[in-house]
Structure of alpha-L-fucosidase:
Amino acid sequence: MNKSILLTSMLGFASIYGHAQVNSKKIPVKNTYEIKSTDSPEDILRKAVHVVPTANQYQALKNEFIAFIHVGPNTFTKMEWGNGLEDPKIFDLKNLDTDQWCEAMKAAGMKKVIITVKHHDGFVLWQSRYTKHGIMSTGFRDGKGDILKDLSASCKKYGLKLGVYLSPADLFQIESADGLYGNLSEYTQRTIPREVAGRPFKNKTKFNFKVDDYNEYFLNQLFELLTEYGPVHEVWFDGAHPKTKGGQKYNYDAWRELIKKLAPEAVIFGKEDIRWCGNESGNTRSTEWNVIPYHDDPAGLQNFPDLTDEDLGSRAKLLKAKYLHYQQAETNTSIREGWFYRDDKHQKVRSTDDVFDIYERSVGGNSTFLLNIPPNRNGIFSPEDVKVLHEVGSRIKETYGQNLLRGAKGSKETLDDNMESFSILSDKNPELIYTTVKPVKINRFVIQEAVSTNGERIEKHALDAWIDGQWKEVAHATNVGYKRILRFPEVTSDKFRIRVLESRATPVISNVSAHYAPGRPPQLVFNRSVDGMVAIAPLKSEFGWKPHGEDILKNLNTNFQIHYTLDGSQPTAQSPVYRQPIAVKGGQIKAVAINADKLVGAVAEETIGIAKKQWQLIDNSSEVDKHGAKLAFDADPKSYWQSNDNGAEQHISIDLGNQYNLTAFSYTPQKEHSKGMMAKGVVKVSNDGKNWSDAERFEFGNLINDPTKRTHRFSKNIQARYITVESTEITGGGKLLTVAELDFIE
C-alpha cells in the first residue's frame, strides 16, 4: 500500500525481541530533531525514526557511485601534498581530454564527478580573478586554459553532475609575503563578489558579510565557481590542514549562506550534509547509520569533527544525544596508490574485483562510494585505470541490471522500482514473501527502506530461501537504510522471505530486488616452501596504499575449484583437484581455476627449482640490517637480501647441499622499490666452495618497468653443488644489489 508522510507519522512502533513498545504520536519528519531533557528513551527513538534526509541529501544518496579528480602541481612533482611554494610553471600540462575522463566514468556507472579545483597548495585550476597562483600562470594553452570549464562542458555532454573541492587550507596564501591567510586583517563588512576591472559577472547577486581578508578571498572564489561553471551539485571541504597561521578562522556561516543561495541543489561535504566515512582505504562499517547524535545543533556549527568510531548510531549512542541529525557517509578512496598520479610503473592500480567489492560494501551498506581517478601528465586517465572502470561498470550492469524478482508475486509497492511507494510491514509478523514464476539462481539481494519519508528503522534482518520444502536462512545483516546489498553463496529457489528481526518502529520497505553476480575464476599463483611443498592460491592484489584488510574473494562469494598438472600438459576439469600443498621435486607445474558456472580462468605455470631446505650460505659481498643474504633463498618473495651501496659488483655464494645437473636459474626482484635490480651478471661454480670458475654470463632487460621473476637457461647443463651469482651491472647505474629469491632448476 502506498501511504503518505502524514499517515506514516501515525505508525505504531514495533515491539520485537523484547524491545519496549512506544505509543504512537503525530510528529513530523525533520532533518534534525532536538532532544529535550524530558524526553524518555521511547521519545528519543520516536524522533530518530522521523529524521530524514533533505531533498538534496536524498538525491546525493541516489547518485550512489561518484568520482573524485585530483590533478595539479603534485601531478608533476609526484608529491601528495605540495608546499605552496611551487612555481606554477611546474604544472606542465600539454594536453587535456576531459571527454575521455567522462566517458570512462560514465562507463563505470558513476553519476557525479568532484574535481579538486584548489588543493592545499593553493594552486587553482580555473581562471580566477583573485589570484595568479594557478593555471593562468602556466604554459597550458598560453595561460588561457581552464580545466574546470572543460570538465563542466564534458559533464553536460555525458550527463554527469559536477562538484568542486575547494580546500580551505591554502599554503600559497600562508607562505607568500602578501598572502591573505592568517594576515591578522580586520573583520569588516565586505561585498561579495568584489568587482574586478574587465571581468564582470553575469550573475548580479550580491552578498554582504563581515569577514577578514582570507574569508573574503574564499567567498569570492566560491562565487566564481558556483556562478560560472554550470550547476554545482556538491561542494567538498577537506578538514586537513598541513599548516596554519595567525589563528585564521573560517566564517562557515557566510560560506553556507552563499552556497545555499547560488547552488540550491548542492550538498556540502565535511559539514552538515555529508560526512567522511573515517578512512581513505575503502573500509566500511558493517552497520552504517545515517541518523546520528550531536551535542550541538548542526545548523549552527562552524566545525564538524571527523567521526571515526565503529558505532555511530546505535540505540545506546542515540540516547546520549542532544540532537539527532541525518548526515550520510561518503566512502572515499583512490583507484591508485595515492590521490595524485605519479607513474604507470610503480604506482599500483586497484583490481576490478577490489573496486567492485568496495562498491557493493559501500553503496550496499548505506553510504555513497567516492572513487578517485587521478589524470596523468598527458591530461587523460591512464589505460589501466580506464580498463578497471569499464570492467567495473560492466560488472555492475551484469549483476544489477536485471531484477530476478520481476514478475514475482509479493508486495507490489516493493517491486515497482519506485522509491516513493512502499510497503508497511506488520508489527506482529514483520516479513515479506516473494514467489517467482520459476526457480531463479541468486547470490545478491537488495533491500531499501523508505528513508526519505519514514527514516531509518530496521536494526536486524534476515533473508530466507525455500529449499527442500522448508525455509533456510541464506543471509542476515543489521540495518538497511537507503540500501543494503546482501551477499551470499548462490541458491536456487522460487520463494524468498525477508524477516525483520529488530526494528525501531514499524518497518517500511520501498524496494527489493534479487540478482546473480557471476563468479570469475581468479588468477593463480604458486608458493613453494623451503622443503619443496607447493601451495596454489588466488593471486592477491599488491595494492599497498592504506590497506582495508578485506578478503575480496570471500566477499564476492567466488566459488571455484583448482585443477593442476605436473607433466607439462594443460590442466582441465578432469585434471587432479588441488586440496593441499603438493610435494614437487622439480619440473613444470600448471594450474587453472574453474568456477561453478564452468568458466575457466587463465592458466598459471611455473618451472619449479630444487628444494631449498638443505641450502647453506657460504659467502656474500655485504648485507644491510634486516635484509640479510639468507633472505635470498628463504622461499619468501616478500623478503629480500640487500647489499651495501658500494658498487655494482656484488655476490652471493650458496651450498646447494647436493650435486645437481642444473639447466637454468631464476632471479626474483624485490618490489618495494626500484633500486638494486640485477641487469647483468655471471654464474660461477666450485667443487669445494673455495675455488671458483665462471660458468655462464646472463642479462635481464626492462626490470624497472617489469620487476617480475626472470629465468636464464644455461647454454649447456652445469654440474654443481657450490654456486655463486655475481652482479656486474645494476639497472640505472645503481651501486647496490637486491634479491628476493634465487632458484636453480635441475
About this structure: DSSP finds 14 helices and 33 strands in the chain. Residues 1-24 have pLDDT under 50 and may be disordered. The first strand starts at residue 32 and ends at 34. The radius of gyration is 31 Å.
